[in-house]
Amino acid sequence: QTLLRSRIVHFRDDGHGSPDAALEYFEDGVIGFADGHIALLEDARAARARGLDLAAAEHRPEALVISGFIDAHVHAPQLPVMGSYGEKLLDWLEKYTFPAELQYADEEISRRQSDFFIDALLARGTTSAMVFTTSFAHSAEHLFEAAYRAGMRLVAGKVLMDRNAPAGLLDTAERARRESAALIGKWHNKGRLGYAVTPRFAGTSSREQLAVAGQLLRDHPDLWLQTHLSENPDEVKWTASLFPEARDYLHTYEMHGLHGGRSVYAHCIHLSDSELERMADAGAAVAFCPSSNLFLGSGLLKLQKLRERGIPVALATDVGAGTSLCQLQSMGEAYKVCQLGDYPLGAAEAFYMATLGAARALHLDRHIGNLAPGKEADLLLLNGTLNPLLRERLRHCRDIREELFMYMTLADERIVERTYVGGRLAYLSPLAESL
Ligand code: GUN
Ligand code: FE
């Protein structure tokens, strides 16, 4: 058993609805994990009183243990397009993203880049993610292989697209069915992995292909659906012109059975009240991608409108449109987006959307999302002193909420000293070697 005595913060499973009320902080806490799961979490004094030998624990009073981050929407093949200049969504896809994804036709590139992507997540404290690959089935294979080796809880799928993209990236309705079914058989529920049916967005799939995606979901009710929805005004108009029979953007998915409680729609910025209500009724979740939405000039999500309707929201980087793979930076960008909507996003809510809130939105909270005994031991040791400027600023913080707010607004992956996945040390910062 690994025993860590440190400052510890997470969200309790009770305290529903309010991240602020659920926030639990141990000024001097102890966490123990064994066999991949959390075995104990308590105040150090209470632990000593009931006879736990604290001498066996590693003592890190200056550090902060938190639950691993969950990234609810990210594109594994898009690291090479991060920071691509000058375009909004549809032109950005044409000019930068589709050509980059075409590189994955080469299996060697696909394999190497998938390994690199998983390592990059772990180095930023992201222990779970919901991931797009490319339309090449082998790219999904490679990502699942890398995640399986790392022991991560990861949900991913092969991208479905059979129109409106370069010929080399297009599959067909029938190939989508065949390749998805094979990947589901091989990877869904293998270890900690899960499969998401992944039509890129309505505009790049024929009606036949969307119907195939819907059939896959009916055949396997425990799969996820991930796609994009209402990200950019031109995209919304274009989608309406492609589907004149649909009432609105969400309806293009509803018509084909691509809705329901295990759906995660990225962006959802320009939705009508009717679309929001239907999403709420279906129990669908939103992946909030603030870095991407600012970088591509897509728009500002009204987080409050989703909250009011009880729609689950999970935070996401949406790399390569997002400019950082680090969820701390997503939180900082989320704060700025919410400020522009006159909603001062608190640190508790921001961290919640990247941990327990995301786990709930993705229906993974039985397994991950916080540090409750019994959950899988995906956790981070954060160390604000690894960044000298931040260290000075932290000296003026009065409580844990202020400290967390500094992490989300002023910090980045340099404060991630260690990442544990399933109780195993999966990343150790080179900056920590001098400690
Ligand atoms: N919509 C369809 N494909 C994509 C993508 O790769 N990135 C983003 N941000 N939006 C999309
Ligand atoms: Fe995306």
Automatic annotation (TrEMBL):
Cofactors:
Zn(2+)
Query: How does the cofactor attach, per the note?
Result: Binds 1 zinc ion per subunit.
**EC number(s) per UniProt?**
3.5.4.3
Catalytic activity line of the entry = guanine + H2O + H(+) = xanthine + NH4(+)
Give UniProt keywords alphabetically: Hydrolase, Metal-binding, Zinc
A GO cellular component term found in this entry reads: cytosol
| UniProt pathway | Purine metabolism; guanine degradation; xanthine from guanine: step 1/1
Pfam families given in the database record: Amidohydro_1
NCBIfam families xref list? guan_deamin, PRK09228.1
Protein family:
Belongs to the metallo-dependent hydrolases superfamily. ATZ/TRZ family.
Tell me the protein's name.
Answer: Guanine deaminase
